[in-house]
Amino acid sequence: MAAVGVVPLLPGVLPASAHATESDRPDFPLVRDGAAVDLFVDSADDPAVLRAAGDLQADVERVSGVRPRLLHTVPEKAECVVLMGTIGASPVIDRLIGQKRLDTSRVKGRWEASVTQVVDRPLPGVRRALVIAGSDRRGTVYGIYDTSERIGVSPWHWWADVPVERRETVTVPAGPLKRYEPSVRYRGIFINDEQNLTTWSHRKQEPDKNIGPETYSRVFELLLRLKANYLWPAMHPYSDFFNKHRENPELAERYGIVVGSSHPEALLRNGVHEWEPWAEEHRGADGSLPVYDYTVNPGVISGYWRARARQNATYESSWTLGMRGLHDSALETRYATTIPEKVVVMNNIIADQRRILSEEVGDAATPQIFIPYKEVLELYNAGVQVPDDVTLVWPDDNHGNMRQLPNEAERRRGGGNGIYYHLSYWGRPKSYLWLDTTQLSKVWQELRRVYEHKVDRMWIFNVGDIKSIENGLSFCMDMAWDVDRWGPENIDAFLVEWAGRQFGRRHGREIASIRTEYYRLAAELRPEFIGRGILSVVHHGDEAGRRMAAYRALLERTRTLGAKLPGAYRDAFYQLVEYPVHGAYLMNLKFYWAERNALAVRQGRGAGTNRFADLAEAAHAEEQAITKRYNTEIADGKWDGIVNPYPSQIPKAPGRPTVSRVAQQDTSGLGVASEGNDTGGARPLSFSSYTRDRRFVDVFNTGFRALEWSAEAGHPWVRLSTTGGSMTEQTRVWVEIDWKRAPQGAHDATVTFTGAGQSTEVSLRVLNDGERARHRVPGFVEAHGYVSIDAAHFDRRVARGGANWRTVRGLGRRTAAMEAVPSTAVPITEDFADRAPELRYRVRFTTTGTFPVTVFRLPSLDERGKRRLAVALDDQPVTVLSGQAVATGNRGDAWARNVEDGIEKLSATVTVTEPGEHVLRLFMVDPAIAVDQIVINTGGVPDSYLAPPESYHRSHRPDPVAEVEPDGSDR
């Protein structure tokens, strides 16, 4: 398997958030000359440590082919040995600390910390030892898995089939490696909407169960290798509830995983499965079934909770307080109809649950959490009293935007604060369950913001079926351990490092670039959100076609790289890189062709209409084929059922789009539709010497019989990609200007299309200011009736009052976005020019008037505040723009549109009194608001989903047209 340039993790390459000291001492050998050193762990240490030691034993064998001995008694004589143990639980470790042979500063007494250090002559008869010591049981476990990573075993070796490079000699550096305690205490996942995981588990893991201990053992190991410690288990009707199989909580305890439950599952009870049989056993005196309503049946419900608290009292658990309805439904309170009445009920529920935990679990009933999710947030804000030692777990809006963050009083709580954050979601307004599509920069921005608000007790991430979220999950766990490691300027460095660990450092940067572009395209529109009528196929050079060209180029890069990898890496590459890119491409492609098909019907095309229908259905069939390959061929069918865009019991990704066909007729006719027009050419093609665009004209056959056609430009400086030929379906003709030959000034021109006895003229409007003007203009230039600006391409940034705008790379629909920081800054509501941080953009206008300006911002929320920024032109009065601050959870309203689009469009007007140079000014009003793009419509912006291509700027965008464009081939 070893190959040049394919070294996932060489010895000495450290996992994230571990801190090493350089040493000139020789590396410590784990395997040399066909022999492995012995591993020692005290049999009295925690079972989680003993089990992880067994994993290190297996990992050394994976790398070397040699299996070391795992000892529970110290060898009397050895050249080298690995000593593993927990401080206070391992006499050998404690003795080394007492002798000051082991440096445990910033480790001993801390949460989940560890030190890995080579010690000379640690014991009589032992010359050298690699000592792995943890502050507690998980600290030791993480130290052990650090060693596994250092020798080349990825946390994803099983879950994504990342191969392990075989080496005859296996060593680790001698210098001390310390893993200090994490930024966030509890870090974990919620397995949710898990139909695919259930299908796979039943087929490939446990045929007699629907997610049982065999599957959970794999989940627990993955979590620990990712340095996580917390789980909300699967909870839907098609899965077995966690406590159905008593091996599950026992296994969690043995692995060292803290098990909790989600917002509708109070005190570890799964209402989907467990309430109905409990109610059956506790019918009323009249034989009626009790309902899950605390105002109706408090005694029965209290007993229901108490039984689970007693059953799981001996395990390290997290206890969810409060109440919602069964299966993620709203709280039911028949005898409490007003908000104040419901607040009283919730307070009584919490008091009852606290009493149960005190009586059944005692002091070990920690952590206790309260999750103000959906309607419960309204009750919390209305006065629910949550005890100070309970952790408040704040939810996002299910689409990656935190709804509300703790205020000053809540930040001082003894129980602290946590978050529940979605990387996968089923629900309104649309679901995204199939692929990992949330930009890492978006995740970073929100997580950084919550941490600045002292939210550091618990981070729980909804990861759906786990598979496809590998990248996002790894990043979240990495950030939860060391929140300061990645910043706004180097989030892509995480991708480089992560990809390098899986596929070799030689390929890390290219894979990171591929993933970054993949995330950017998803930020424009998630592949699960694609549909008819969203993207334009007639404006901005075929907006949808440009997007498809970007996807096509990305897929070509992906396949080219995949072909370079040794065969052993192909399965992992397909899972982690190729399938997401290819799947997203095809999901978009089938709707692109369906949109072209619908347009063809409106245009009266003949054979081309059916051609587009065929292409749409072929793309859907190919999408099904690559999913089948994932499930049945990759890793010899190991993942059968794990990936499916269309599971039967949850909302589906868009399926086969509807297309139309026309009956074949032995006729022909010439049709023409120029860019910007559904049919014909009423909207002239616009050309500017600044943007140097190319525009398209679709020439098509209205019948099925081939016709001869020709195109002729009215001026020699108008260039055509083709000038005619024989056509059965359609041809896209690209029109460009030869700027070296074109005369300066404003000109009208034409291109005439002839065929089948018909002739159609397309108008061109050409503005040529000359090469000298192009190189001298200092700012963005108005052209085609608009100015389009990427927010990160500012000319000046002004900090004021301790606040500023910062560039966050990889955020938003373009290459970067601008965020107002710090997130804890005080809002500025007056005297903006003197008090508010500012972004300035130089703009050259050629027209005058009052024009709409649209600011594209990322849809962050603040349900106890506002989401505002302000704009002005030059020294004119400032206009404050207010964004959506509240997540309604509805379909079709402003919040729904924002999360579907990934941006919110805030609109104002600016007045240009004279042509020439001006300054557009953008001010922070509320902190932590992020801006992606700005568009000023001077009369030419058509209705389209994306912003127009960025305007010319000699520094930032010297060649705007040089983006990936449709290839222009016949379709």
Automatic annotation (TrEMBL):
Region called Disordered, residue ranges: 946-971
Keywords, in A-Z order: Hydrolase
Residue ranges of every copy of the Gylcosyl hydrolase 115 C-terminal domain listed in the record: 779-950
GO terms (BP aspect): carbohydrate metabolic process
Zinc is among the record's keywords: no
Compositional bias ranges of the Acidic residues kind: 962-971
GO molecular function, one term: hydrolase activity
Compositional bias annotation for Basic and acidic residues: 951-960
Record protein name field: Gylcosyl hydrolase 115 C-terminal domain-containing protein
UniProt lineage: Bacteria, Bacillati, Actinomycetota, Actinomycetes, Kitasatosporales
